[in-house]
Amino acid sequence: MTQPTTYRFSFGPWNISEGADPFGPMVRTPYSFEEKLDWYRPLGFEGVQFHDDDAVENIDDLSAGQVATKARQVGKMLADRGLTPEFVAPRLWFDARTVDGGYTSNSPSDRQYALDRSLRTIDVARELGTPNIVLWLAREGSYIRESKNARAAYDRILDAVNAMLEYDKECRIWIEPKPNEPTDHAYVPTIGHALALAYRSVDPSRVSGLIETAHAILAGLDPSDEMAFALAHDKLASVHLNDQNGLKYDQDKSFGSANLRAAFNQVRVLEENGYGRRGEFVGLDVKAIRTQKQDKSTAHLVNSRKTFLHLVEKVRTFDRELERQLIADRDYEELDAYTLRHLLGVNDESLPAIEGQREFSRSV
Ligand code: 3MF
Ligand code: MG
Questions:
Q1: Which of 91, 123, 217, 277 has its CB surrounded by the most CB atoms within 10 Å?
Q2: Ligand 2 centroid distance, CA of 250 (Å)
């Protein structure tokens, strides 16, 4: 029998946030980057996810040499704490030159900025000690359909991916699809789109996907099925587990908070397909809710990690023989009911003990 997977967890420094939203300011004071790094191990996390400027502040104002020096220093800060850099993502949605998008901007000089910045991100990743680059294509979309040529946009995204692959023969690109927000519609909304781009690239073996629960839900899709699709292509490089209560702004709720059963199914698909056995991290892209007090700024991370591990236990204790029988009998109604009982941690025998139910069972 193969050993059970020991899961490793990761998050990014932005996941310890201060509660600002479009309607109000911060409600907690920021912790320094070093303070955040000090928390990883005690909270049960080993992997650190970065935006390029999480690692190297003011990256656009520094020379290539300065960027490399700073990134090496951060790499040392990680090593000192027993932490692993998981990936670096170019933050292509903040600068004035990315107002109309990065790779798909209508301005050639802005597109050039986006590419230059992405190559700089690869330098940061190399110095930090990871080959992995995440592309969350934040503004690669439009608010007004007629303002951009969607067909050209796909070519431009592909050109950027290819230029990155050619710039560094070791780097790996993980596309994190999201269907909307901040743009109206994004050009790479689902994992299917991301992997189609991967196969068209100059080196498909180095391009794969990162699936975020909330992003799949916003696309109207089941996150576990999206994960299964990527796993079937051996292209699930990482995950951003969280939760999302319907079609709203991107909520980044704690994992399992809105739909425990969907969370169970994500864990099920990961566990059944050996996700994590080759070192893949369980990433949690969860946000502290605005009402949290300062000293509880990390509870959402701890809770999400615990929920994941409880659900691993639920997957491992699922009655496989019963499942096999019910599927063979095509009794999906009972499979549904068994799944709910299993998640509730109850069995049918416990029902008569509930007052009122006793009356009910006697009367029928
Ligand atoms: C946006 C996201 C982002 C990305 C991050 C890394 C704030 O919806 O999920 O997190 O995950 O920028 O690519
Ligand atoms: Mg994310």
A1: 217
A2: 10
